[in-house]
What we know:
This protein has 269 residues and is an alpha/beta fold. The protein folds into 2 domains: 8-150 and 213-253, Vaccinia Virus protein VP39 (Rossmann fold, 3-Layer(aba) Sandwich); 160-210, N-terminal domain of TfIIb, CATH 2.20.25. The chain is built from 6 helices and 11 strands. The strands form 2 sheets. A 7-stranded mixed sheet has the order 3-2-1-4-5-11-10, with helices on both faces. Strands 6-7-8-9 form a 4-stranded antiparallel sheet, with helices on one face. The protein is globular, with a radius of gyration of 19 Å. Residues 6, 11, 23, 49-52, 55-56, 70-73, 76, 97-99, 113-114, 116, 119 line the site of S-adenosylmethionine.
Amino acid sequence: MLSGNQMSWEYGTLATEVYELEKPVGHTSADIEYYTGLLADISGPILEPASGTGRVLIPLLQAGHQVEGIDTSPQMLATCRQHCRKRGLDPVLREADMTVFVQLAAYAAVVLPAGSIALLHGRKATLQALTCFRDSLVPGGSLFVDLPVPQSAAEPEALRYWWRDPYLWTRQTMHSEHDSAANQTTRFLRYDKWEDGTLRITELQRFRLQYWSCKEFENMLVEVGFTNTQVTADYKDASPPRARSGVWTFQATTPAFTIRRRGAPAFPN
Ligand SMILES: C[S@@+](CC[C@H](N)C(=O)[O-])C[C@H]1O[C@@H](n2cnc3c(N)ncnc32)[C@H](O)[C@@H]1O
């Protein structure tokens, strides 16, 4: 079921096809190697919320991990299932929203590469997702989550295109805006699929990113009960986070023993 902050057209048919062309399974910006290293000592089940087409999930399965995926996009999930079948893999993949999905104390680690948590709108949804991750982790379980570094403007992206005979796919930014009060950028991305110069399908994606400072995000982790928070930049252990970094990766753990008061709210207010 989709929550109010997630509309199904966000990763539709064409967005999925272009994701495949731009970032096929195994495509890495050093994130797959970094996550593989972070997970090397994890032997229990792993959850990847927003697992998409399996770009990261499949290499982790091939490295011997038991990984489950959830995603709100039926198109991204269908593509992931096809990729898994072709490789003789059969992971649990669910259509579910990361602000709602919980499997109590089921996973040794939760991983969110590619800054996907920034697709959630605002503090309430982000705290809900972090609370779901906490509850889905075993006591002492690990969370690894990427965060895009805050931008002060939303630059339009130059037109990009991909040829695969007989089709041409194009993606262009129709509109971009930056909301400094909400610390968000929003782009309207138009995807077109052409054949012999004729437009076959078109699709609009509202691509909104929610930014957090390192301190704000760390405070949210602590607020929902994570401990041992650490942050690195650009997939290098020795690299501290800076405003000019490309991506920050947070690590945190759930307490080894969780004592929850009876009647305590599932989500912080
Ligand atoms: C940038 S893709 C990342 C896919 C994959 N993790 C990777 O690294 O290639 C973002 C994915 O997040 C999914 N998504 C967006 N909001 C979500 C939500 N609230 N719950 C679960 N998945 C969500 C989208 O459908 C999309 O597949």
